[in-house]
Amino acid sequence: MAYLCSMISKDLILSPIKTEMEEFEVRFKTSMHSDVSLLEKINHYIIKKKGKQIRPMFVFLTSKMLGEHSEKCFDAAILIELLHTATLVHDDVVDDANERRGAFSINALWKNKIAVLVGDFMLSKILLLSLEKNNASLLEIIARSVKEMSEGELLQIEKARLLDITEDVYYEIIKKKTASLIASCCEIGAAAVGDYENRKLMREFGENIGIAFQIKDDIFDYGNDPEIGKPTGADIREGKLTLPIIYVLNNAPKKIQNELFSIIKNNNQNNKKIKRAIDLVVKYKGISYASEKMKHFTNKALSLIENFPENEAKKALKALVKYTINREK
Fold this sequence. Notes:
Elements: H1 10-14, H2 18-31, H3 37-48, H4 54-66, H5 71-94, E1 99-100, E2 103-104, H6 106-132, H7 136-162, H8 167-192, H9 199-220, H10 234-237, H11 243-251, H12 254-266, H13 271-283, H14 286-304, H15 312-326
Antiparallel strand pairs: 1-2
Helix pairs in contact: 2-5, 4-5, 4-8, 4-15, 5-6, 5-7, 5-8, 6-7, 7-8, 8-9, 9-14, 9-15, 11-12, 11-14, 12-13, 14-15
């Protein structure tokens, strides 16, 4: 199974949940079924182009670390992956993105109207599957995540227009927009095995990993490798104030702050200016600062599970955490 490509051993990560991941693939495909041929064609395309499936791994490893797997664990993983897939489809429409994971996005191939409806179909499947299985507690976690991700996206749009995102506001945005889903993976993994005592702790664990994950993604925007999944300088072109930029805007000499702000506001489509902005962010320690913050949130997350009994799932979960910050794209 080619789920992960990293210096972190995929065997270590997958070993405790190999059977569950194989069964999950079958069940997830079934959950996407529709009698509408167009939708089946698109669903087949989505499944064929699936990513690393990190989020179901977080669900299964959390639940296995805390208890014995049950049918509810598969339900939880499917709900999470349906939500993740729906948000990716909708995000590509919102961002007017033509590529996803090195392939054409749904909206690029079938236009925005169809892409929105495909995402809506997946969200409806979350509701139906939850009701069919009487999984109200799992649905509550999913619904909260949808709410927070929507708020995070809108907060980012609001602040980006004014270009007044502070570091605190940045964390507020990514807690909702990105970290909320990984937090839900870990919370739902605990809920699926009936460990309600540790739900809050595992949500906090996932939230910290999600923040580190997003910071890593922000750092990718300053790389030179076209294989990272998005063009270098994409965030600058979109006027997004990410952590590396925020640090330089607050800590570089005033002249540099003004120059960088001007590029982001007035010249974010000029390739030469974008290159200059990237150089400034690197030179004035934006990347190194972001890297240190990423490590901080990662270590904070790992400390939260330190007192749990040692088992193979815990070792694998820690390896998966390390993968999220060491991944190359």
